[in-house]
Specification:
twelve-stranded antiparallel barrel; 1 helix; globular; mainly beta
């Protein structure tokens, strides 16, 4: 993809959250928090259908996901699976929050992912790390995650085990809009079912709507790019997802 188009995509992903920040930071414009209360536990069962652009290594056009999250005291447990024509993935994670202050919290997190890519390879991704959350305003919060990433990949054709040691990073901004909408913007080197090298970057925008206390619907757009040099990137793939969650 040509550089001007990549720049336009990047500008859109950055500009929308900044516009929200500008609108709500005006005097008297701060709305009541429409999203969950500060650090409120959310238990849910969800399902997602997605479309891939079919570029890069992800040649399958459609994919499906289902996931489950449950909170127990200061612990958060997550399990999810993804299936497509390219293969299947399983992700398990556990988060513990031992340090909680008035507007922030910090704790360790562990993620395990199993990625089966066609009949080509099987990869185990193991990520120990930390997560930090902060909600300085009623309408705004952010989350930062940093992991050590160990990849253990077996390529069937080579009958060879390929270990990789690297890191993974994610930052997410959440804007709680009127009428129970939430706009989230994230930049990450990994996805829930995708764990690559730090040079592979994901830019995402997600708009979710809480229809009532039990049902949430979301539309998610992700742009994947490769960083070749410090300020040189190239578009590799895109995703569009529609999801629903039953919250209990």
């Amino acid at each position: 993809m040509k550089k001007p188009l990549v720049k336009r995509i990047t500008i859109i992903f950055i500009a929308l959250p900044l516009l929200c920040f500008q609108a709500f930071s005006q005097e008297g414009a701060e709305p009541e928090l429409s999203g969950p209360k500060l650090f409120a536990p959310v238990n849910y069962v969800g399902a997602t259908l997605g479309i891939n652009t079919g570029t890069a290594a992800d040649s399958s056009l459609f994919f499906a996901q289902t996931d489950f999250q449950y909170n127990l005291s200061d612990w958060t447990f997550f399990a999810g699976i993804q299936g497509s024509g390219d293969g299947a993935g399983l992700t398990l994670s556990v988060q513990y929050w031992p340090f909680t202050w008035e507007h922030t919290r910090l704790g360790p997190e562990f993620i395990y992912n199993l990625d089966i890519y066609r009949d080509i390879s099987v990869t185990n991704n193991i990520l120990p790390g930390f997560a930090f959350e902060c909600q300085p305003l009623s309408w705004f919060s952010f989350r930062i995650e940093l992991f050590y990433l160990f990849k253990a990949r077996i390529i069937h054709a080579l009958d060879e085990f390929l270990p990789v040691n690297t890191f993974a990073y994610k930052q997410q901004l959440n804007f709680y809009l009127p009428h129970d909408f939430t706009l989230s913007q994230y930049v990450a080197t990994y996805g829930t079912y995708r764990y690559t090298q730090p040079g592979d970057l994901e830019l995402g925008l997600k708009l979710s709507w809480d229809m009532n206390e039990n049902w949430q619907f979301a539309f998610d757009v992700t742009s994947r790019q490769i960083i070749y040099y410090l300020f040189t990137t190239a578009f590799t793939a895109g995703e569009f997802k529609l999801g629903a969650r039953y919250i209990f």
